[in-house]
Amino acid sequence: MNQAQLAVLRYGELVLKGKNRHRFEKTVFEQVKRGLRPFPAIRFEREFGRIMLHLNGVPYEDVLPPLKRVFGLASISPVVSTELELERIQEAAASMMEALTPQPDTFKVTVRRVNKSFPHDSQAMNRLVGGAVLRALPELKVDVHRPDTELKVELREEAAWLYCRVDQGAGGFPLGSNGRAALMLSGGIDSPVAGYLAMRQGLKVEAVHFHSYPYTSEQSQQKVRDLVRRLAPYGGSVKLHMVPFTEVQTRIHQAYSQNLLITLLRRAMFRITEKLAEAGGAGAIVTGESLGQVASQTLASMDAIGRAVQMPVLRPLICMEKKEIIKIAEMIDTFHISILPHEDCCTLFLPPSPSTNPNLNVIHSIERNMPWLEEVIEDAVLRTETTWIEAGDERFDRFDAFF
Ligand code: ATP
Ligand code: MG
């Protein structure tokens, strides 16, 4: 096939609706430009409802992976540009259709004549181009209602543009278009997936990780940074808050070590996350909880934990099966990192039988007997270390003073 000189990027349908369209399109455009920074030769052209890329020699296959990570893009197609001559257009049409894998059974041609001086009108061109394709690929059939492939031809002032292959985009909402959230990120399989889904839904996330150094290792923190680095290509760069949780955990454990321990620790984690979220202007907490997965993820447990905070808690995986979650983890390339062995701060002082049905009144009365709790929580917030994790290269990570 002729090498594509251009690519057409289409916004998602949702993006096209309502008064926010302009802002949404601008965000998507910025993310496209960011993703394509490694290819400075590319020129961008914004048109109504789409973005055109002039590839200037950059192979389409090279730009596809970063584009597939831009939320708000519905689809992407390579575009071949030919001279405005019938024969050139017919040749290009036939060779583009031949190059499709898998080969479609049916197709239709849709010609749009922007250039009114082109000698054949769009109806005539549909037949002329369709005929050429059928001669080259006699197995193919025309279906104008539900074709497997639509071959589009745009007759422009200077050239004809042809495209038929359609690559799915990431879909979703443009980054940050639905606000900001704090993602509670462990080293496990679930929370990175929850983070990805939150980002896809238009939330800009900052990650919050609790570690119990020196009880948990430096490697387990590196693992979390590696996970965030897998999320960063979807969000430009992602802030990571590393919360030193040892002191909170030890103090709580010294005061109470029975079956509600996990609930108490999780409530403390939620409170710290809420404080970090508020300071960063986030409006929600995102977790990787999934109903029934473990003792702390029963309805009663999640309720008792969630009530420690005022902020809404979003649980994108709540009704998903593990195998669906793993599929997404594989797609976003976090699975192989998540399954590396690591210590989690919560496995440090596990009670013999964690409660699956914690009673909120009991919890409140235990917490009332911990008058120092608020202070150690505050202290953990103050000692939190924040880094901006960049996609790609560790050398570009930036430390950030939180307060
Ligand atoms: P994951 O695979 O995300 O670790 P999980 O199924 O192992 O989830 P839990 O370990 O019970 O479940 O954790 C439930 C949720 O609590 C996690 O998805 C995450 O959002 C949050 N969480 C747990 N441990 C931490 C941690 N050390 N730091 C930050 N968040 C955590
Ligand atoms: Mg876990």
From TrEMBL:
<dbReference type="GO" id="GO:0005524">
    <property type="term" value="F:ATP binding"/>
</dbReference>
<feature type="binding site">
    <location>
        <position position="266"/>
    </location>
    <ligand>
        <name>ATP</name>
    </ligand>
</feature>
<keyword id="KW-0808">Transferase</keyword>
<keyword id="KW-0547">Nucleotide-binding</keyword>
<dbReference type="GO" id="GO:0004810">
    <property type="term" value="F:CCA tRNA nucleotidyltransferase activity"/>
</dbReference>
<dbReference type="InterPro" id="IPR020536">
    <property type="entry name" value="ThiI_AANH"/>
</dbReference>
<dbReference type="GO" id="GO:0009228">
    <property type="term" value="P:thiamine biosynthetic process"/>
</dbReference>
<dbReference type="Pfam" id="PF22025">
    <property type="entry name" value="ThiI_fer"/>
</dbReference>
<feature type="binding site">
    <location>
        <position position="288"/>
    </location>
    <ligand>
        <name>ATP</name>
    </ligand>
</feature>
<keyword id="KW-0820">tRNA-binding</keyword>
<keyword id="KW-0694">RNA-binding</keyword>
<keyword id="KW-0784">Thiamine biosynthesis</keyword>
<protein>
    <recommendedName>
        <fullName>Probable tRNA sulfurtransferase</fullName>
        <ecNumber>2.8.1.4</ecNumber>
    </recommendedName>
</protein>
<dbReference type="InterPro" id="IPR050102">
    <property type="entry name" value="tRNA_sulfurtransferase_ThiI"/>
</dbReference>
<dbReference type="GO" id="GO:0005829">
    <property type="term" value="C:cytosol"/>
</dbReference>
<comment type="pathway">
    <text>Cofactor biosynthesis; thiamine diphosphate biosynthesis.</text>
</comment>
<feature type="binding site">
    <location>
        <position position="297"/>
    </location>
    <ligand>
        <name>ATP</name>
    </ligand>
</feature>
<dbReference type="InterPro" id="IPR049961">
    <property type="entry name" value="ThiI_N"/>
</dbReference>
<dbReference type="GO" id="GO:0000049">
    <property type="term" value="F:tRNA binding"/>
</dbReference>
<dbReference type="InterPro" id="IPR004114">
    <property type="entry name" value="THUMP_dom"/>
</dbReference>
<feature type="binding site">
    <location>
        <begin position="184"/>
        <end position="185"/>
    </location>
    <ligand>
        <name>ATP</name>
    </ligand>
</feature>
<dbReference type="InterPro" id="IPR049962">
    <property type="entry name" value="THUMP_ThiI"/>
</dbReference>
<dbReference type="InterPro" id="IPR054173">
    <property type="entry name" value="ThiI_fer"/>
</dbReference>
<keyword id="KW-0963">Cytoplasm</keyword>
<dbReference type="InterPro" id="IPR003720">
    <property type="entry name" value="tRNA_STrfase"/>
</dbReference>
<dbReference type="GO" id="GO:0002937">
    <property type="term" value="P:tRNA 4-thiouridine biosynthesis"/>
</dbReference>
<feature type="domain" description="THUMP">
    <location>
        <begin position="61"/>
        <end position="166"/>
    </location>
</feature>
<dbReference type="GO" id="GO:0052837">
    <property type="term" value="P:thiazole biosynthetic process"/>
</dbReference>
<dbReference type="GO" id="GO:0140741">
    <property type="term" value="F:tRNA-uracil-4 sulfurtransferase activity"/>
</dbReference>
<dbReference type="Pfam" id="PF02568">
    <property type="entry name" value="ThiI"/>
</dbReference>
<dbReference type="InterPro" id="IPR014729">
    <property type="entry name" value="Rossmann-like_a/b/a_fold"/>
</dbReference>
<comment type="function">
    <text>Catalyzes the ATP-dependent transfer of a sulfur to tRNA to produce 4-thiouridine in position 8 of tRNAs, which functions as a near-UV photosensor. Also catalyzes the transfer of sulfur to the sulfur carrier protein ThiS, forming ThiS-thiocarboxylate. This is a step in the synthesis of thiazole, in the thiamine biosynthesis pathway. The sulfur is donated as persulfide by IscS.</text>
</comment>
<dbReference type="GO" id="GO:0009229">
    <property type="term" value="P:thiamine diphosphate biosynthetic process"/>
</dbReference>
<comment type="similarity">
    <text>Belongs to the ThiI family.</text>
</comment>
<feature type="binding site">
    <location>
        <begin position="209"/>
        <end position="210"/>
    </location>
    <ligand>
        <name>ATP</name>
    </ligand>
</feature>
<dbReference type="Pfam" id="PF02926">
    <property type="entry name" value="THUMP"/>
</dbReference>
<keyword id="KW-0067">ATP-binding</keyword>
